[in-house]
Design goal:
Number of strands: 8
Strand content: 35-45%
Number of helices: 3
Largest sheet: 6 strands, mixed
CATH architecture: 3-Layer(aba) Sandwich
Strand order of the largest sheet: 1-2-3-5-7-8
Order of helices and strands: HHEEEEHEEEE
CATH class: Alpha Beta
CATH topology: Trna Endonuclease, Chain: A, domain 1
Number of domains: 1
Helix content: 10-25%
Distance between the termini: 46 Å
Structural class: alpha/beta
Shape: globular
């Protein structure tokens, strides 16, 4: 049986938030699935959370295999669309913080993409980009945050 992107989406969307926390993925807000963002496309999952009068929006881009720069750019496209929609509907009076979370079986560590999360920081100090890998076995799904990549042989 092949494990598909839609299976990953189904598990995350329908899972109990506490169970997801135990398995390494932290979702606290209201989750929307297959959210159409005008002509910007359809996001796999979007989380919306309101804290202290501020809006936190996380776009989840899921891949059954490798995540890389194209998945990041896809997520960035959705963020731009949501930002445009909020500005049109609500004006600039609301504080909104965005985050992109990419989830896949593995991360593209053969390019500079793997360094992005540590350099893309929101105004509130949170990472703008977070990458997770998942493993799926008889024991269920486990998520692992991927960060702080570095070259094994730095040459200096």
């Amino acid at each position: 049986m092949d494990f598909l992107e839609k299976d990953l989406e189904e598990i995350i969307y329908n899972a109990n938030k506490e169970e997801l926390h135990k398995r390494g993925l932290f979702i606290n807000g209201k989750l929307f699935r297959q959210l159409r963002i005008g002509n910007y496309g359809i996001a796999d999952l979007v989380e919306v959370e309101r804290l202290s009068g501020q809006l936190y929006i996380t776009v989840y881009e899921l891949k059954k295999d490798k995540i890389g720069i194209s998945a990041f750019l896809q997520g960035l496209n959705y963020v731009r669309g949501i930002k445009s929609y909020i500005e049109k509907e609500r004006g600039k009076s609301i504080s909104v913080y965005f985050q992109i979370v990419l989830i896949g079986k593995k991360i593209d560590s053969n390019s500079s993409f793997c360094y992005l999360p540590e350099f893309l920081i929101n105004f509130d100090g949170a990472n703008f980009l977070t990458n997770y890998t998942y493993s799926y076995s008889v024991n269920g799904i486990i998520f692992k945050e991927e960060s702080e990549y570095d070259l094994i042989d730095k040459g200096f």
